[in-house]
Design brief:
Strand content: 15-25%
Strand order of the largest sheet: 6-7-8-3-9-10-11
CATH architecture of the largest domain: 3-Layer(aba) Sandwich
Helix content: 25-40%
CATH superfamily of the largest domain: P-loop containing nucleotide triphosphate hydrolases
Number of strands: 11
Shape: globular
Number of helices: 9
Length: about 300
């Protein structure tokens, strides 16, 4: 049986094989109402697990319901079936151990509050000294210590998203959910923000779950990439990203990086037809065991 355990973060220990999952999603189903009053099935039977300190990205064709899936996992919207559990306990609303970064930073930040007051919101119930310490730490981590008194509308798009990251970090979450967080910034800013997220993840040890349309971003940041089918979505493939960490611009130039990106792309372009017969020798399917629940598990040979 192929070992699909991810490489641990730099300087961290690999999770024990028997360690319970931080987050477990089993058979998740979700439908949404549409204008004519009918129900649109968005997600069908999605299952996966996420270990403490692991980073997973979710990709899929447009309209596959990636954002809906992330919102259901977070507790922002109720699920119709299946389960989402944190260390065995059901998740039914947004919990304290989770932070979320949304795509539209200009809508998630409060323009009438300063940067500091935006970051304060998750820790406003703490003692003032503790809250002040956390705010200073969070702003330092994203390079905004000198902009605490500014307002979001006075900052660039990339800086506003760094404010959103600081606000997510200030509560010291076990799990950070990100929904296309860098889709609205330019390419260079996006690359810098990806490196910042990687550095935060390595240093703070939270688990990460990212929804993205950017395949290179998914491969660059992740231990594993989950490829969704078209709507109603299910997990078609689980691809391990066995690239050395820490990663940098040289990682993006590696042949292995491009091969992994092409493999992920094949599931996006042909989500219903990509199968084991199409896999190149460098990415074998498990030869000894049939895929569980139709999920194709892939791993690069060392």
């Amino acid at each position: 049986m192929i070992d699909t355990s991810p490489s641990p973060p730099h300087g961290a220990s690999a999770p024990a094989a028997h360690e319970a999952a931080l987050l477990e999603v089993q058979g998740l189903r979700k439908s949404l109402s549409v204008a004519d009053g009918s129900m649109l099935e968005v997600t069908r039977d999605v299952s996966f697990s996420l270990r403490a300190g692991e980073f997973i990205s979710i990709v899929g064709p447009s309209g596959a319901g990636k954002t809906t899936l992330l919102r259901a996992i977070s507790g922002l919207i109720p699920i119709d079936g299946g389960s989402v559990t944190h260390r065995g306990v059901a998740v039914r609303s947004v919990p304290d151990w989770m932070s979320i970064v949304f795509q539209e930073y200009n809508k998630s930040l409060f323009p009438w509050l300063s940067v500091r007051k935006n970051v304060l919101l998750p820790v406003r119930k703490l003692a003032k000294a503790d809250a002040d310490e956390r705010i200073e730490e969070a702003l330092r981590l994203v390079g905004l210590s000198d902009f605490a008194a500014q307002y979001p509308w006075e900052l660039s798009g990339g800086m506003q998203q760094r404010v959103a990251l600081a606000r997510a970090m200030v509560s010291r979450p076990e799990l950070l959910l990100m929904d296309e967080p860098f889709a609205s910034v330019d390419a260079l800013t996006r690359t810098n923000l990806e490196d910042m997220v990687q550095e935060l993840w390595r240093n703070l040890g939270f688990a990460g779950l990212l929804v993205t349309h950017d395949i290179n971003e998914a491969v660059y940041l992740s231990d594993r990439v989950l490829c969704l089918s078209s709507r109603p979505s299910r997990v078609l493939a689980e691809i391990e990203i066995d690239l050395p960490r820490p990663r940098d611009r040289h990682t993006r130039a590696m042949p292995e990086f491009h091969a992994l990106s092409e493999r992920v792309l094949s599931y996006i372009e042909h989500p219903e037809s990509a199968g084991s017969e199409d896999l190149p020798a460098a990415y074998p399917t498990n030869p000894t065991q049939p895929p569980a629940d139709g999920i194709q598990t892939l791993r690069k040979k060392r």
